[in-house]
């Protein structure tokens, strides 16, 4: 009798739909989503905005495609976009080097050149859960497996939008694994009549679906392929930044595929996303997959009743058409580019009036670009006969290419004197050489170039930064050539100086189990604040070659700098350095903007006091495209770091809101805020200091 009662208790919260149980204990029917069943079919219908509703029908029968149907439209006239689809996710699993350098923060790894194995994710359908999280509903189908990984297929829909995320959420017990994944949707019989995409010249293209023996790969813009059926379209696209593990180059590596039997892993016709296993043929670190971490190998779909590729416009809206949206009172600035434009000019290659890399930045809405020239070519350590003309050419070309709303700034990654790799910027052209013989002066006047500096050690480097009001910071901190830095020189005079800004942030390494990007430098930002100096973190791209047809946006990030107006090259750009030095900026991947941020009515870079109870009032204005996931109020007391997570999963796509948080920060010395969305896009403020 006791066993019968126990069975009835469990069964009261678990409905048996067809052959496998469906757990609805985490589902909230008050959020506007309807869950029903008809035999072996689980129907999940959600409000998709514009008085429409989207519907996904999950087939619970084993041996049948897990997606029976996807529908969109008004309640009384929904259209069936597609039927009988299976997710197609392929894991290519290699070995991570955790010994030779810096553990999971390694970039210089040879994963792609060592033995690896490829596994398709299979699904046995052992159980289903429907879980409500704010405005999000997740359908979790357990029984997914791929080699050493196991977990579930998760389908997440978002109230207010026809957006859906498909993910193989999987973990492994095996240590030291690195993974790259391909993803898409396949059907035993092609459900599509036409396919649409944008070519790299921003032209919408299409092809009729015909029988083909193999799959075809394409370089496209906006990372999107669209399948069109009889009654609608489905766009398939990745998280715009999270999908790309860090590389030195932003080449467009044919990230879209369509056709039959992709990689000989999934029979049937499919459309989807892919990675080139060898990347840019340099260092190819792939994604981290530490043991027991739930990795989300995922992609997005957008449902539409429209045809002729029109749904692409709605996909593009999530990334502002792959541009950085203008924001009143701010100008966008990106740093650390080894374009080596000066070398191209000096070797007399044909140089157009507007080089391709300048077009690419202008097309992407970047107002200010800070170069890292002479990273390979060039003569930073002399001789004089080469160094001074090279610098003059850099200054002349930056001036020539700066006009309108675009400013190209000279800069280098000196990697000398301080330790590790670091970047620098001066507020005007400065002639300096990274070596000095004993009989040479530190500074001299030259009739052609003006003042010339020769630097022989770290003290002279700091003196130059002080005299010319320059700034320096650690590039790719704690990884690559800066492994161990700035930690190793945090007690040095140059680091403690106000001429040393702090460090630079890039989404590196990549770990798909984390709800954010670039944790490595975010952690460093907190550590530097606890060390006691007022340091800040700017965004850096750390890319080499750039052209308009590259996948620049996916690898890019920017700083929104508070500036009254764009500096003109001929007048110098001291206002930019002032904003950097004072922390008057925020960092963004582009999808989330933070127009205002105050703590007790003071902004980033400034100082305030907690009240008698230890409380502060944080006000944050945010704009976003993808639905938000979370905010983090991060603070420190000089020793520990404290993370206060604010759940934002009740937000819908394309919103703007002012948030107010009252937080007790007694005995804390600083505070900052991060905001992240469901695609792991993010933005973070600089620090407000507490007395």
UniProtKB/TrEMBL annotation:
The keyword Signal applies. Residues 1-16 form the signal peptide. Keywords: Signal. This is Uncharacterized protein. It comes from Dyadobacter fanqingshengii.
């Amino acid at each position: 009798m006791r066993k019968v009662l126990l069975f009835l208790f469990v069964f009261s919260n678990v409905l048996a739909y067809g052959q496998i149980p469906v757990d609805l204990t985490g589902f909230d029917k008050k959020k506007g989503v309807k869950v029903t069943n008809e035999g072996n079919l689980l129907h999940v219908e959600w409000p998709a905005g514009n008085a429409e509703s989207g519907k996904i029908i999950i087939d619970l029968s084993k041996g049948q495609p897990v997606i029976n149907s996807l529908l969109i439209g008004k309640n009384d006239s929904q259209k069936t976009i597609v039927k009988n689809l299976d997710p197609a996710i392929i894991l290519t699993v290699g070995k991570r080097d955790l010994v030779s350098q810096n553990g999971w923060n390694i970039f210089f790894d040879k994963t792609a050149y060592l033995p690896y194995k490829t596994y398709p994710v299979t699904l046995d359908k052992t159980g289903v859960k429907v879980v409500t999280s704010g405005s999000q509903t997740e359908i979790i189908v357990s029984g997914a497996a791929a080699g050493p990984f196991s977990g579930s297929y998760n389908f997440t829909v978002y109230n207010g939008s026809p957006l859906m995320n498909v993910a193989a959420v999987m973990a492994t017990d095996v240590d030291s694994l690195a993974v790259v994944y391909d993803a898409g949707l396949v059907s035993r019989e092609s459900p599509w009549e036409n396919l649409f995409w944008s070519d790299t010249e921003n032209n919408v293209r299409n092809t009729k679906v015909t029988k083909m023996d193999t799959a075809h790969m394409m370089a496209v813009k906006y990372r999107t392929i669209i399948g069109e059926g009889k009654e609608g379209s489905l766009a398939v696209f990745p998280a715009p930044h999270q999908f790309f593990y860090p590389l030195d180059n932003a080449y467009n590596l044919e990230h879209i595929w369509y056709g039959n039997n992709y990689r000989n892993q999934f029979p049937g016709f499919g459309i989807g996303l892919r990675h080139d296993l060898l990347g840019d043929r340099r260092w190819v670190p792939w994604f981290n997959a530490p043991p027991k971490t739930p990795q989300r190998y995922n992609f997005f779909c957008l449902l539409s009743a429209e045809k002729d590729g029109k749904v692409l416009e709605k996909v593009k809206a999530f990334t502002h058409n792959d541009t950085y949206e203008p924001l009143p009172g701010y100008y966008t600035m990106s740093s650390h580019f080894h374009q080596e434009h000066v070398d191209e000019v000096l070797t007399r290659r044909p140089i157009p009036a507007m080089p391709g890399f300048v077009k690419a930045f202008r097309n992407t809405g970047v107002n200010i670009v800070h170069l890292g020239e002479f990273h390979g070519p060039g003569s930073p350590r002399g001789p004089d006969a080469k160094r001074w003309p090279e610098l003059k050419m850099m200054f002349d070309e930056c001036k020539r290419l700066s006009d309108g709303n675009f400013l190209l700034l000279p800069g280098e990654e000196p990697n000398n004197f301080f330790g590790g790799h670091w970047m620098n910027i001066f507020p005007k052209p400065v002639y300096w050489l990274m070596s000095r013989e004993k009989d040479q002066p530190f500074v001299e006047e030259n009739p052609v170039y003006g003042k010339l500096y020769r630097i022989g050690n770290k003290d002279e480097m700091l003196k130059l930064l002080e005299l010319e009001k320059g700034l320096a910071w650690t590039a790719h901190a704690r990884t690559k050539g800066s492994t161990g830095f700035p930690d190793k020189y945090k007690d040095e005079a140059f680091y403690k100086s106000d001429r040393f800004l702090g460090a630079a942030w890039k989404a590196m390494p990549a770990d798909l189990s984390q709800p954010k990007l670039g944790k490595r430098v975010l952690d460093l930002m907190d550590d530097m604040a606890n060390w006691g100096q007022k340091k800040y973190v700017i965004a850096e791209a750390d890319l080499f070659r750039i052209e308009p047809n590259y996948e620049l946006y996916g690898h890019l990030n920017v700083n929104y700098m508070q500036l009254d107006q764009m500096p003109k090259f001929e007048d110098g750009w001291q206002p930019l350095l002032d904003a950097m030095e004072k922390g008057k900026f925020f960092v963004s991947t582009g999808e989330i903007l933070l127009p205002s941020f105050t703590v007790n009515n003071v902004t980033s870079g400034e100082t305030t006091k907690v009240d008698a109870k230890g409380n502060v009032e944080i006000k944050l204005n945010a704009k976003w495209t993808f639905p938000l996931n979370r905010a983090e109020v991060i603070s420190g007391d000089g020793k520990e770091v404290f993370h206060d997570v604010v759940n934002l999963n009740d937000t819908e796509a394309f919103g703007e809101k002012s948030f107010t948080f009252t937080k007790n920060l007694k005995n804390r010395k600083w505070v900052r805020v991060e905001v992240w969305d469901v695609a792991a896009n993010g933005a973070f403020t600089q620090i407000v200091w507490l007395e």
